[in-house]
Amino acid sequence: MIGETKVGNEDLNLCFEKLMMVAAGNSEGVKMNSVGITEWKDIPVELLLRIVSLLDDQTAIVASSVCSGWRDAICLGLTQLCLSWCRKNMNNLVLSLAPKFTRLQTLILRQENPQLEDNAVESISKFCHDLQDLDLSKSFKLSDRSLYALARGCPNLKKLNISGCTSFSDEALAYLTNFCRKLKILNLCGCVKAATDHALQAIGRNCNMLQSLNLGWCDNVGDLGVMSLAYGCHDLRCLDLCGCVRITDDSVIALANECLHLRSLGLYYCRNITDRAMYSLAHSRVKNKGSMWESSMKGRYEDDGLKSLNISQCTALTPSAVQALCDTFPALHTCSGRHSLVMSGCLNLTSVHCACAVQAHRTFNTIFHTAH
């Protein structure tokens, strides 16, 4: 196991002589003794941490096992760690590292094959209280125990990815939001049991700083949950509702009225969405033109309003409503290479074009008539 790796002094001398060449930015090479260092044990903490910052995470972990001085320096100095490269025994690795790397702020534990178990997450919550960014995606083995542990031990979480964690319940997720109120980015894609109206009501009540939420394919989400989000999370910028088949126009209308900073909205396969929702989004820009005028005076007009919208398979929509929306938000593009308005599967919307397409058509006509 990595934590038990033993490295010889000669190998370390050679390894770190090469690493110091990189750290010094000199491809010609810098000998260790040329900077007053005769062996690896003499490396100052500041230089050691600089070198470690250039290493991959696996090598950094190996370096932390060399001696107590290196262990203390690296464990206290390292704030970001990714263990996604670990194909086997990730759970045991986390159990051994969590008590040492107590200053971690970012921890990526994304897995291709489920390895993590609740005891590893409980260890993280026990020792890593500064954690702000945690990725547990595809951790199929985790249960509610993990969310309860994170709620108790990691109140500073700002970004949490638990996509694909199908065993979590909405009760556990609601409990988490009572303690992790600083959340700004939350990925619940595929969390069918956890992402319910009950949980979304808790998020809307507790996570007022939320800016990005992925609810893709959470088919237990309905209007009550989305409206609770809209009323509680006014700073919401990105919301993915793809596959949330139960939502209706009421959800989009609430978002249009309450979330004035919304930039990206995914409605793929939300077939209950009608023209009413599109017109409400378009009207929201007109209604809030006062604040947008202030932004335009500061040169940020193009940053306002929707920049990305996916209405694929929303077959109830008509060209007039979608065109009105496209005309209202110039950042929505249908032109080749810039598809930020995605309408695949909506054959009745082929006549909808963005401002670029209209301008190109006018330019072509002008050139054609001038030439003749």
UniProtKB/TrEMBL annotation:
GO cellular component terms, A-Z: SCF ubiquitin ligase complex
A Pfam family this chain is assigned to: DUF7885
Database matches in InterPro entries: F-box-like_dom_sf, F-box_dom, FBXL15_LRR, Leu-rich_rpt_Cys-con_subtyp, LRR_dom_sf
PANTHER family per UniProt: F-BOX PROTEIN SKP2A, PARTNER OF PAIRED, ISOFORM B-RELATED
UniProt record, GO biological process: SCF-dependent proteasomal ubiquitin-dependent protein catabolic process
Record-given protein name: Uncharacterized protein
Limits of the F-box/LRR-repeat protein 15-like leucin rich repeat domain: 154-289
Residue ranges occupied by any F-box domain in the UniProt entry: 40-75
Domain of life: Eukaryota
